[in-house]
Amino acid sequence: MRLSLFKISILLVIIGASGTGIIFSESDKIQQVMTLNQTEFNEVSLFFEAEDIAYYKITIPEFEGQGVFYRIVDEDQNTISKGISETKMSIRYFDVKESGIHTMIVTNLSQESMKYEIEIGSTDANKIIIPAGIMFVGGLLLLFTSFMKLKNYRTEQPDENIR
Questions:
Q1: DSSP letter for each residue of the chain
Q2: Residue 163's CB: how many other CB atoms inside 10 A?
Q3: Burial class (CB in 10 A: 0-12, 13-18, 19+), 20
Q4: pLDDT value at position 161?
Q5: Among 43, 77, 84, 89, which residue is least crowded by beta carbons within 10 Å?
Q6: Could you give the CA distance from residue 120 to residue 31 in angstroms, rounded to a whole number?
Q7: Is the pLDDT reported for residue 159 higher than 70?
Q8: What strand order describes the sheet that includes 89-96?
Q9: Which strands form 41-48's sheet, in the order they lie side by side?
């Protein structure tokens, strides 16, 4: 079996995507399901390394238009990110400048008791660079080989058939 440049590029994309998925699935994260009454709040905390990118996911299973207020704070109670999530599922990212415990404070804005699923975690952005680079090189090779193959398949059309 002869490996062409096209097959190698597909293989590089698959290896890079698999490596990225494995690293992301093994990263630190915490998930918590909570039920909050009107104006009640709860906290979820996790330790993050400096110069990382963290994420949080808020899911409201019984969403009926009511939102939830969230705030991310560091150990010194400095606000990193805040906002109101008014969708069934919201995923957002934030930069971690200093190592330490970061806390997500979630406050119910609804008039009745609501159930929330909160996940906060690290993307391990520094570890994902190598597999992402492999995937990028594979994607560039894939574009190049596809262009070269299509370049060889020119078909000429008579001028009278083109409108």
A1: ----HHHHHHHHHHHHHHHHHHHHHTS-EEEEEEEE-TT-EEEEEEEE-TTEEEEEEEE-TT-SS--EEEEEE-TT--EEEEEEE-SSEEEEEEEE-S-EEEEEEEEE-SSS-EEEEEEEEE--HHHHHHHHHHHHHHHHHHHHHHHHHHHT------GGG--
A2: 3
A3: buried
A4: 54
A5: 77
A6: 7
A7: no
A8: 29-36, 114-122, 52-59, 89-96
A9: 41-48, 100-108, 68-73, 79-85
Domains and CATH numbers, the chain: 12-27+127-145 (no CATH), 29-123 (2.60.120.380)
Contacts of 78 (CB under 8 A, 6+ apart): none
Q: How far apart are CA 70 and CA 95, in angstroms?
A: 16
Q: Above pLDDT 90, what percent of the chain?
A: 66
What are the tens digits of pLDDT across the range 87-139?
999 999 999 999 999 999 999 988 888 899 999 999 988 899 999 999 999 99
C-alpha closest to that of 69 among 86, 89, 93, 55: 86
